[in-house]
Amino acid sequence: MSRNFYDIDPAGEVLCTYTDGGEKERLKAVSVDVSISCFSSVLVSPTAGSIGLRKSRRRPTDHPSRYQEKTEVPLAKAILYAFLPAGYPHTVTDDYLAYQTYDSLQAFASSITSLLANRAVLEGLGVGDSSSSPTGALILKITGDTISRIATILFAHRMGQAIEPECKFYRFLADLFNDSAQFLDLLTPALPYFPKLGVIVSAGVLRSLCGVAANASKASLSAHFALTGNLAELNAKEASQETVVSLLGMLVGSLVVRMVEDKQVVWMLMVFLAGVHLTMNYRAVRAVRMRSLNRQRATIVFREWLDHGTVLTPEQVAQRESILRDGRGNLTSKSGDYTGFCDFGTYGELRGWNPRGYHRYDFETSAYFMGIWHRGGYFYMRIALKEGVKNPLSAWFDAVNHAYHFDSALKDGLESHYENEMPLGYVSEEQKETIFAALTAGGWDLTANALETRLPVRVRVADGRKDRHGTCNVGLPWE
Length: 479
Hints:
It comes from Staphylotrichum longicolle. By secondary structure, the protein is an alpha+beta fold.
């Protein structure tokens, strides 16, 4: 009885087919042909055999009854798939291709603007001017590089943990920093020495901020795209894509730099290319459909459930979320008459913040302490999570729920509203578990904590005496 043998990719698609009409051990005799066939097939998509592909059969000379079937691919498609992850599209998310397309276009525009900006910097440093001092230019360069490196360290320390939950925002912000630095570079030829020093330092700081934000946000996005543990390969292929795009941009940019000398035309061209650059970058991050729930996405999902009792998918939320606004905990009441903000903090921050003129209410659950401050049409919430709470998603749901019912709460009096055993809009833990199960079924990843943008701090509640670690624990939380 004859048997067929197949090489398949992670998605189960056939890459190579081997038909054996004789002894199984004799298959080793055609190992060279097999490797050639597999190499040819790896360069095609997992849907080999579709339009534009053709299959050929090669019968080995040592065993006429055995032959192998391989897939050949046109050169253009082979080159294209050399820049895509192996097993594409089954090994990456559905939004990968749209993001990479827009990202390549914005990188092309950025390559041209960087050449125009670099030419202006060289002119500002005195290249081509016999009266300029090389020592002065060196001091300008060293000063700018030194301060930019310090800015890199400070920014990474201050904002490092906030980048991953808000990776789409910081990916776009990075290019805002980069374009701002390039426009500052255009000013350097027209400025005297000390103002020029200030501009060079400022541009260097903006570039360092761009580097931290871009690299960290790209790492988070790559982790989102990788489905089969292929993060390293995905980053390698992205580097190949950027290399090709940068080479094309440098080629076109070299022609532009040689042809465009007039300062006014340079500024007009920079404005146009920067607009293209930012537009493509905005479309790239808009195309990404993150599966983790940061503050904005969680608020959108929970508000939809409170309004209509339905659960939104990551694709639907991606169409609603804002890239530049409402990303840090903005909340509103059902009517929209009351707007506010919610944040996570320590127990001391929650107890110690007492702004004048605000009405305050404090309460405690088994998982957290919450403080609510209100004045006029604005409110502020702060949550201090208790020890043992790993994911603050349930606490954030309660914050959104409180804000949603703020209109009714104020009509009854904020104090009396929350002193009831089950205030208006109360959702039990069992109901929340049902909601979270529906979120998981809808494609959301609830294991990732994308709500806390600072070092997670928890409150340990004990009898008020110092524990064996020497730390003073909290007794009764509210007098």
